[in-house]
Amino acid sequence: MSSTDPRFIELRGRFRRFAFPMTVLFLAWFAAYVLLSAYAREFMAVRVFGHVNMALLLGLGQFASTFAITGVYARFARRRLDPLVAELRAEGTR
Question: Which of 36, 60, 63, 89 could form a disulfide with 40 if both were Cys (CB 3.0 to 4.6 A apart)?
Answer without folding.
Answer: 36
